Structures are given as structure tokens and as C-alpha cells.
Amino acid sequence: MSVILGPNRYGKAETRLVRVVRDGEVHHLKDINVSSSLSGEMESVHLTGSNAAVLPTDTQKNTAYAFAKKYGVDQIEDFALLLARHFVDSQPTIHHARVEIEEYGWERISGGHSFVRSGREVRTCVVHYDRDGRTSVVSGLKDLVVLNSTDSEFHGYIVDEYTTLQPTGDRILATAVAAQWRHASATGEFGKSYADVRQALLDAFAETYSLSLQQTLYAMGRRVLETRQEVCEIRFAMPNKHHFLVDLAPFGLDNDNEVFYAADRPYGLIEGGVLREDAPDAAFAWE
Amino acid sequence: MSVILGPNRYGKAETRLVRVVRDGEVHHLKDINVSSSLSGEMESVHLTGSNAAVLPTDTQKNTAYAFAKKYGVDQIEDFALLLARHFVDSQPTIHHARVEIEEYGWERISGGHSFVRSGREVRTCVVHYDRDGRTSVVSGLKDLVVLNSTDSEFHGYIVDEYTTLQPTGDRILATAVAAQWRHASATGEFGKSYADVRQALLDAFAETYSLSLQQTLYAMGRRVLETRQEVCEIRFAMPNKHHFLVDLAPFGLDNDNEVFYAADRPYGLIEGGVLREDAPDAAFAWE
Amino acid sequence: MSVILGPNRYGKAETRLVRVVRDGEVHHLKDINVSSSLSGEMESVHLTGSNAAVLPTDTQKNTAYAFAKKYGVDQIEDFALLLARHFVDSQPTIHHARVEIEEYGWERISGGHSFVRSGREVRTCVVHYDRDGRTSVVSGLKDLVVLNSTDSEFHGYIVDEYTTLQPTGDRILATAVAAQWRHASATGEFGKSYADVRQALLDAFAETYSLSLQQTLYAMGRRVLETRQEVCEIRFAMPNKHHFLVDLAPFGLDNDNEVFYAADRPYGLIEGGVLREDAPDAAFAWE
Amino acid sequence: MSVILGPNRYGKAETRLVRVVRDGEVHHLKDINVSSSLSGEMESVHLTGSNAAVLPTDTQKNTAYAFAKKYGVDQIEDFALLLARHFVDSQPTIHHARVEIEEYGWERISGGHSFVRSGREVRTCVVHYDRDGRTSVVSGLKDLVVLNSTDSEFHGYIVDEYTTLQPTGDRILATAVAAQWRHASATGEFGKSYADVRQALLDAFAETYSLSLQQTLYAMGRRVLETRQEVCEIRFAMPNKHHFLVDLAPFGLDNDNEVFYAADRPYGLIEGGVLREDAPDAAFAWE
């Protein structure tokens, strides 16, 4: 029998880093979670335990902190690229770097140095960089929970022997949007891009009269691609957070889409992507 | 040996309920989580399994849904009182009801029926009502995460043989505020009261130059009591969410309160209350 | 207006500590989570920010680690008492200590130093000690998930206008036991006691033909008090983890207690205690 | 601009299902969590909202329950295949099904119908089936937490300007194993296979003197492939659950690998696979 090493990568996950910039009395805050994964000449470490090709995960963590000081943290995509390029360009044994960052939002309370965490969506990015200089940037968000209290129907589906669901002409449609969008280029104004994509997602969700969550998903993706030229592909995972109409008839009450039970599990799960026909090859962007 | 039944209560926990009010094209949304606990003549059910005195937890759930339809859901304190009074007043075997409600905030996206969940703090309440008509109302919030990036010191503490902490004249102070405040009366404008207390908490946190998290806690409580006459007592549980300054000296870099490691565990935990000297007796309010 | 400081305490929560004892080739492992809370002369720190009476939470953490080395960690109750007494006896400003410990179980894989975590229940304790020497010890467990697939009925309950539940003569009864039991004395063989209480809880759950979860709870408490003389009181919080019979009639199938939907929320929640008639006063034991 | 639909799938996630088999007084229990995802002719539902090709997620849930009754639930791989084949074979618009199942273990307490949940690892599987009859079966487990208290070193790694980690000749090595292994065939004795793979993983973890977590990972994968002919590839994600030696020198104490701080974040994350050189093509098995 011959056994071989398959795909592999290693790194430091979830380095929690807060960067403060003091502009006189006014402070600025970045609150991020950095995960780096490296790959390359890793046969030896797996087969013999020799670490000669291994840049320790502890060093990866240190580098994130040191770079936060040296270069600051502005847009997470740029900071991720900085780290990815450093690992690959400085270490011959490291051929590929993947850096993922989450960013948590804060709003000012008052004065210059007091903040309250905005618990809404988390901004995300995943970048890749390899020793041939190939680069990919995927931006994203997760936990953006949205709900339409009407303008959603569901009917006309397949009915088989296990189907008991009744068609509806008016239901609540709710989901927690997780979206990731691929940039055509590794350079850009990622801050403005993020704000505009987020708004496009919200707008399309609100403005789409929905006959299925898939339709809503596609409309959201299409809206982003139509309004943001820098984005060439977008992918979604959207749970259908079911809100079931409660049967109040036993209590002599009608329920005209007024009282709902918000269920936990099971839930529908819709996954899908929208892309430009001429989108460049994704290579490793989605890994 | 003689064994007896001690304190007990039972109920339905975490009934997730969404109430929509349709005002023409404009919809209003209430998203709550209701938990009721009843007690009374419960010797038999424990000792013999006779359920003759038991209002099923399933019925408690149904009642929450039916009442949401019949009476609507405006302020959670009022809705909780409605339920508590119903259970006690309608069932002779139920002598006491405790109803706890969490409310999740939503903001409008656009149009009249599209919403995005505001993931910030959760609004809470706990009410009690017993067959003697005694009533208590405690409002609250949790997961209000706040941070001051300066104006916080910590020094002058006890130093014993196990103390290694160095005093600091400038640190990040961050916490996730969980606060509950007791109303002097069971009637009130709970919506306005909540908004004002929340603001008072944020203001006091932001405006307090802190020598200890205890001092900040007390200042927050004092601010609430000074500005909101309807509140007679407030209690807090505030974790000290440590942000440790990263040592960048090994990399030839200084770190003048710029780069921090946000730690998970362990964390400081400060619990304390502030009350009026003449606050009425709390009775069962905090149970 | 006169505002005063109410009850308060502070400490270090969730110090994760692993203690290894090397007995030649055979290693022994203790994996615990320590939380200490101190109170005493804390007026000044709240009102003025003076930390002169404050033993830092960082020092509390250090003490846990140092004591783990000095004294080892055998039974968590004993280790908690050691810490509690140290804080109060060594610091005049600290009048009361509460120490809570969770312990995570591990089993040997093979050889002397390889372990697999037993993810079942978590063992717990809470001890109190004050400067008058008063001491309390409460042991416990949580997340002990148990299920009877028959021998559970539910009927004979109150039926009001909001009751739709149908009585049943055979259902699944499942719960996640959280139990805490108070020792009559602060000294004892806590390891053996824990093992025996745990077994008594399992036995009573398995052997009780149940007409209500309350009855099962009481039977479990009674069994512990009958078999363990050192325990004077026990308290439970037991969610009724509903397993609903799935209606398979639309598919031409019967369902004789064979296929169930395990629901998340809402759930019943049964809380209650059992104690000896002559149990000593609990004082602060349950705080 | 031309925008197109990318890869997509939809289904019902996390259908919690408990199946009881009554063999006289002795009951048998299966506790599973089923997630199905279908794909096929889904252009219309995305672009126009027509559900004519859509088998509702609610029906997918119903089917899981009905099949549990009709066919029972023995090995999760077989049950997943049954569902996957049904969806594809019965619906012309469904070209591909992916079914994922988690199984939670229970042990008997005593008697025939009382069980306690074994909270250790979760058993998993993912199967695929398409209308060309192509089939893949991946079995797995997650949350298998293991620890070696010695026989682990880490040194000889790259040292760059950001490296501060000190080499060690003796450390704790701990991880939570998540492993998935691909079967060469879609038929097999999955129950015995699972038990043997699990044991091989534990044995290899315990018996490997480790110079890096990568080495341990590879040894575990190799052991499985060497002992289980039905497995052609295995993949791991293994966090390095750091246990840091606490510095007790300030307290005049040494710490010869006795007292550790178990850290949460950040953590190392090692991902990698091991496969037979002649393993058949994976196709969609890992999707």
C-alpha cells in the first residue's frame, strides 16, 4: 500500500486584535479577528516531524500584531494582503498564504474615545496570495438578519406523496445573510465598496417581491453585480428562518398574518452564486 | 428521615413570538422571547404525580400567542404583567407568576415592511405577580458592549505575594453591560423609561474617568437613579473584557496604547447594585 | 435624593487550569475552570475609585495557579475551600469569598499519558467562606442529558380556554439535569460523594415511572437524600426537552412512539428543591 | 453586462429526528440530525421565482421522518443514501442530492428504556448521489478532544524577526479532532468501520511521539488507511488547543510541566489529508 500526503495548510486562527489610533482627543478603533493559513514545502513536517520549513503559528500571530503597529489597520482586505504577501515573500518554504479577517463594528457614544459595539453584521474577507504572485480578494459579511413582513409568496412547487405544506400567498420571509463577493482585482477602495455592496443587498432584499427565497437571493446578487463593477462574483448561504403562523382558531381568534412562531430548527438553507459571464477564473479564491 | 419539598416553580421557557401590526402599507414588528414560571399548590404533582393543580406549560405558550393577538404587544413590561395576572387570577392553584421577556430590536430598511435586525443589546424584563396582588417590575438590558480607549487607570490596589500585575495610568476599559433596574411602581411609560435609562448608562460610561470598573459601575447606577425617578434600584453584572497591550519590544517597536490583544478568558467580573436609601422592599423582584 | 451602594462582589471568572501529576510513567489530569468572587470593604472603590481594599482579579488568578502547584488539585470542593479561606484569612478588607469550580472529565486512552475528554456532564461546586468562619459547600453537575423512551405519562392537568394539549399515556421524557446539592458539613469525601450522588440521580431517573417531570425531579432529590447522609438539600433546574411524535398519517403510516421530532424551543422548565426537614440554615450557600 | 447563475443547492437543514425501536422491554435509540441539499433544474426558481422544479424543503423534512418509520435508521450512511437516492430517482428536476447526518451517542443507564447521552464525539456522514448513479460516502467524527500530557516536542522551526516562541522538549499536545474519511465504495459495514476508524485515530494519537501536530495528524491518517481497506482518503481539521505553562517563578515555585493555562484563542489550526496513491477520483465527495 502506498499512502501519500494530500492538500494541507496550517496557521494561527482567531488572533483577536484591537488597533487604536489616537488623533489628539479623537480616537479611532479597529476590532478584528485574524486567521492565517500557510502551505508549501510541508512534506517533511508531516512525515518526519521536521519543522525546518515551518514558520510557527505563534510567529504568524506576532506578525499580525507587529504589522498592526507598523502599518496600521485600515481596510481589512488591504491588511490581509499585507500579511499574506509578507509570509510568502519572506519565506522560501511558504508557497501560498490564505488570510481571513473578521471585523466587528463600533459606533461612537460621545466624546472622542467612547464606543458601543454595533452587534449587527460582521464584515469579512478572505485573501489568497501565492509565490507566483497570483492574488485573490473575497469580501463579505455574515449575520445580517433581515425580514420582510409581507410581499412573499410560496406556491407552485412539486407535490409528492410526502408533501403536506400548504401554498401561501403572504408569508414572512426572513434570513440571516452570509454573502461573499469576489473582486476582479486585488486593488480597490474596499471601504466604499463594502458599504455600497451592503446597501445594495439590503435594498434588493427590501424591494424584491418574492416568490421563493432563491429568487430573492438571485436578485440580491444581481443587484450587487449591476451596481458594483469591481465585483465579478457573489455567493450566498441564506437560511430560511421560518416564521410559522400560529393557529389561533382553537381560541376563537383569527390570525391574519399577525402572530408568528419563530422556529429554530429545522430551517431551509439556500446556497447559490451569481457571477458575470466573463468573470475571470476563480482559481483558489473560494478555498 | 423526613424529606420535604423546597422552593419550586415550573413553566414554559423561550416561546419565540413575532407580532406584526399592519398599519396600511406600514408594518410594525415586535420580536420577543417569553418565559413564564408558575408556582402554588404543587405538593401533589411532586409527591404523587397528580397534575390536577398544573396548568400545562403548553397552555402557557398558547396563552402568550393568544394574548399577542388579542391585546397586541407594545411594551414588554406591560405584556408580561398581562400574562402574569392572567395565570394567577384565572387559576386558584397558581399563587404566583414570574414572566420574563427578551426583546430583539429591528430597524427599517426602506418601505414599510422590510427590516434589519439591530444586533446590539437585548432589552429584558422580569415581572412578578402573586394572588395578594403584589407586583414587581424589573426592566433591563444585556449584551451592551462598550469600550473607552482611554481615561481609565488601575493602581493603588493590594499587593500580596501572588501579585504580579503592574499598575497602569492608561488602559482600555471594556465591558458587556448586563443591567436590571427595579421600578418603584408597576405602572409607567416603560418605552420612554427604557430609552432614557439606556442613554444614561451610555452617557455615564462615556463620561466617567475611571480608576476602577467598580467606580464606573457605581457612576452608571447613580446616573440612572438621578435622572429616572421611576427607578428605585439597579443591579449590574459587568465583565472586565481585558484588552492587553501587546509587547512589541522584541520587534523593535514601541506600543503606546495602540495595539491590543482582546482576551476571552479569564475575565474580571464586577457585580453590584445601587439603590435609593428609601427604596421600597424588593420582596421577590430579583428572584 | 440619597443613593447607596447595594450588594456587590468582584473577582476573576473562568480561570482555565490544567494540573498534571506525573507518577512515573502514569500521569493524572485535572481540568478545571475557577471563578472567585470577593466582597468586603468595597465602599471606597465604588464611590471614589480607591483600590486600597481591592485584591486584583489578576492576583486571584495567580493564586489559583500557585495553589494548584503548591497543594495540587484533588477534589474541587477542597481546592475551592483552600482558595476561599486564603483570600479571606490573608486580607483584612476581604470579608467573604465565593469560589466556583467546574471540572471536565477525561478518560485514559492507553498508556499512561493519553486522554480523551469525556464530554458528558460537567461537575461543579460553589463554596462560600466568611471572616466569621462560616462555610458552605454546594456540589453539583450540569448537562447530564437523560431520556426515558417510555414509562412516562402526562394527563389530568388543568384544561382552560387556551389548552390544546392532548393527554398521553406514553411519551418520551428527556431532560438535561442541572443539580446542586448542599453538604451539611464543609468536610467530607467529596469524590466518593459525587460519584454516589450522580449514580443515585441516574438510578432514580431510570426507575421512576413518571406522571410528570416534577414527580421525577422529586424522586431524584429524595433518592439522593435517602442514600447520602452528607447531603441536606438538593436543587434542580430541568428543562423538559420535548420530543414530539411526528404525524405520519398523511403518508399512510402509523407512528406508535417510534419517530419523534426533538424540539429546541420553547421547552418546559421545571425548577425545584428537596431538603431534609432538619436541614441547617442555608445562609449564603445558594448565592 | 451579462450575469449568470452560479453553483447552487437548497434543502432542509438540521431536521432533528429520534427513532425508537421497541424490542419488547428493550428499546433502541437513534438520535440524528439530517440535512439534505438538492440541485438540478433551478434556473427558473432563481430567475423568475417559479417553483415548478422545486421539491419543498418541508417535504424533504417529511421524507426523513417517513423513511425513519418505513425503513428504520441503522447506520447513518445507509439512511443518508436512502434519502439521497429517493430525491434524485423520484424527481426528474432534481439531478443531485447531498445528505449530511450527525449522530449523537447514548448509553444505557439500566433497564431497557433509560439512556444517558454520551457527550463525547459526534459521528457524521456526507453522501452524494446524482442522476448518473454516481455515489460518494464520507464518514467522520468531530469534537473528539484528546490530550497527551507528554511525548510532544516543538523545535527546529524557522526563526524570523517576528519569532519569540521558545523551543520545547516537553509540552502538552491537545486537539479536538474533526476527521472525515472517504469510502472507496458506497456499500459497506459502516458501523464496524466507524468503530475501528475511531479506535485507530485514538491509538495513533496516543502512540505517536510528536515533534509537530502535523506529524501526529499524518500518523493518524496513515494508521486509518493501513488498517481499514475500505477507506481511501481521510482529511482532518485539528486545532492546536494550546496549554501554556504558567510562570510560577514570581511566587518562588518551579513548574515542571505541572500547571497549565488552557487558552481559548488564538489557536493553531492544522488541516491536512492523507490518501492512497491509487485512490479513485473524489469527484463531488468533499463538497
Automatic annotation (TrEMBL), chains A, B, C, D:
Its EC number is 1.7.3.3. Keywords: Oxidoreductase, Purine metabolism. It catalyses: urate + O2 + H2O = 5-hydroxyisourate + H2O2. GO terms for molecular function: urate oxidase activity. InterPro entries: Uricase. Pathway: Purine metabolism; urate degradation; (S)-allantoin from urate: step 1/3. It comes from the Bacteria. It holds the Pfam family Uricase. Catalyzes the oxidation of uric acid to 5-hydroxyisourate, which is further processed to form (S)-allantoin. NCBIfam families: urate_oxi. Belongs to the uricase family. This is Uricase. It comes from Nonomuraea mangrovi. The gene is pucL.
